[in-house]
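Re: How this chain folds, sequence and tokenised backbone to follow
Notation: Tokens come from a learned vocabulary of local backbone shapes, not from coordinates.
Start of record: The labelled sequence and token lines come straight after this line.
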Amino acid sequence: VMNNQIDGESFSFERNPSASGEATRAISNRTFNLIPYTGNNTSLSPEYNASITRSELLAEGWNPQVAQMDDSLYVVVTTIDTTYSVYDMFKVYQSSDAGVSWTMIGGAYNSNWNLSYADIEVIDDRWAVNFSSNGLMEIYYNTFDDLSTQFVMIPQPENYFIQWGSITSDEEYYSADMTWMYLTFMGYDTLTGDADIYYTHSEDLGETWSPQIALGAYGMGAYRPGIATAFTTPNPGTSVDYVATTWRDTLYNGHVTRIEVYDETVNSEIVLPSNSASDGWGHYAPTITSYFGNLFVTSWVWYGVDYIGYINPNISFTFSSDYGMNWGAEYAWYYFID
């Protein structure tokens, strides 16, 4: 039984394995508080009767993020449409023909500031977008059945300006009634200037979110919005579930920080090390993806002015076959030679 709380009212529900024998999962027993929404963002109405081509979609905006469910593709793009606002906004498009044509199914704007760095996840009966709104991290979700929309405030620390976020879920591994969503986001303390990454998760398809925890990303240099978070498990239902996120420090080391889903213990390590000498190298902010217990991290490695061997940057990468316990094989990390 999952104990939960919204607006001070407690409720509970069961997460049981289905009759088909699908994996069940452990219970976190956390209290989730619904934060009253104080923003003034406005949602867009779908335009089901007006589709655009792939080329038109590519010209529509910037910072695209993609998700897939069944045979449909979903893309969120940041754009400016002065019909609604002179500030950055986001639109969500859906394609049911492998990307040939696209239909705008929603989005949001604000008349006073930018809505930036949107990322998208599609699960069960809805799509959800996280975005930065005037220094706050928010979620906007839209259900497929009745087209109901909702803006949700994400728990976050005081005096922090949130810039970037990355959202994922475990819907590939658990049935719809047991699917959880996970979000990491980066911001900086407006009083000290220190940056950190925070983690939160939702057990009700994005409607409420757990209190954020700091991941201790000390020396934070950069974080890759939209493609910096992955869920990993060697075997669903065994209570061995992790969320992994990537970032680089100011010395251009690439890190992976791993969060244990049920007790939220945190482990961080350098997986793409740098050499800060003039004949050394460094990595830009990495990306991460996963498949069951396998993790794959990629970045871009550049070389110092006195480095002998390469002039142009290369693609660097590393991998783990045991959900982030060990990295690499014969070597700790690898690169594609230009």
